[in-house]
């Protein structure tokens, strides 16, 4: 594993161990960036803003993004292997979702850049000669990108692509648990011919390490962060000291609503996906499902059967995270009912040393129970019945988070009534995680600040400036 700073690769720093979540074994080490290296990365990014990069036209930047996309695509199998090694996620998931989406992220922002235009206004003046107002978009400057372990390449590139598209320079810090694909990305970006210092990568932990040093750095102009809400609070405090803008994609406790008029087979299949994809370690995963009472028993039985039949899922990312999920399960089993899972699979091989949890369906817990209220971020879903649409909305909208929700209904009027009334950034009706990269993506309440996707990211990463010319 190497850092990439000022156009050069660097393996300096005290190493920390890299653990394979599938077996729990140490499989490598990662060099922890020193404060001096973080300073050097920020310095290189600052210097690059004044270098040849400043003169690159949007078309040249779009071509760069396409070369990066092509580079990832050419080495897709290597990227997939690195993503699976770091996260333990199934090959079928990484090869069809994570890696193709990283390619798509760069291509989407190359396309969006081509369609972007400046605005202009003809302004009347008393002397009749008028004035011309026009807006130019400038880069924010040096941007810190801090990303989590669950979708390491997808979420890193989701920020790096628009940041580079708009002419910024970047210092990226991936999660210390999943550095592999970020290293490959640095190689691809280097080969794509980006000027030295435009993209920099430093490895390290968050608190009292590279993450904190970056977010507190006086020469970092903005912070784009995806991770836990609690970390967001810490980062916002650091950025507030110098009034640096932040873009935050944070935690969630996403609700699903299943109405009696829904296609029940579709709702069950959709909820199995939305609750158990990547073993529940996707920020958009559904952790609590409210089911209209007449179909509650049928839905619960089918979902439990489906969860028991799931195979080919991956482990939790770390021993600490596994222990957190198991803590929730122990309390939930004591206070409610376990309809499926709840334990640790017994493989009888090296995987028994890894961080596995069975897909779990719970019911019978009160709404203020920690397993229903707190983000678990594991393969755990709680089911509860509801009687009216109003009650369903109130249940879904309760709590501190507001990232995503799913609604399962066969009534088109209800779909349009319920979905917009949900206090979330993203609502899916009769589907889950169907993405169009031009649409706004993000959360309300403790789930985030700002929106990513399409023009929203391009707007965050650029500073609009108005020029007024008296004619
Ligand atoms: P995390 O907050 O622990 O870590 C995320 C990143 O922040 C890592 O790179 C970490 O090293 C860094 N970090 C940690 N403490 C820091 C500090 N004090 N200063 C600066 N950087 C620091 O989150 P995680 O456990 O890696 O990811 C899981 C969380 O991310 C879940 O809450 C999940 O919901 C959320 N998430 C949200 C979205 C979204 O789009 N809303 C997407 C994916 C994950």
UniProtKB/TrEMBL annotation:
Q: Which UniProt keywords apply?
A: NAD, Oxidoreductase
Reply yes or no: does the keyword Oxidoreductase apply: yes
Q: What residues sit in the active site?
A: 249
Class in the EC hierarchy, top level: oxidoreductase
Annotated GO molecular function terms are: oxidoreductase activity
Q: Which Pfam families match?
A: Aldedh
Record domain Aldehyde dehydrogenase: where? 16-465
Which Enzyme Commission number(s) are on file for it?
Answer: 1.2.1.85
Concerning its family, UniProt says: Belongs to the aldehyde dehydrogenase family.
Q: What name appears for this protein in its UniProt entry?
A: 2-hydroxymuconic semialdehyde dehydrogenase
Q: Which organism is it from?
A: Streptomyces omiyaensis
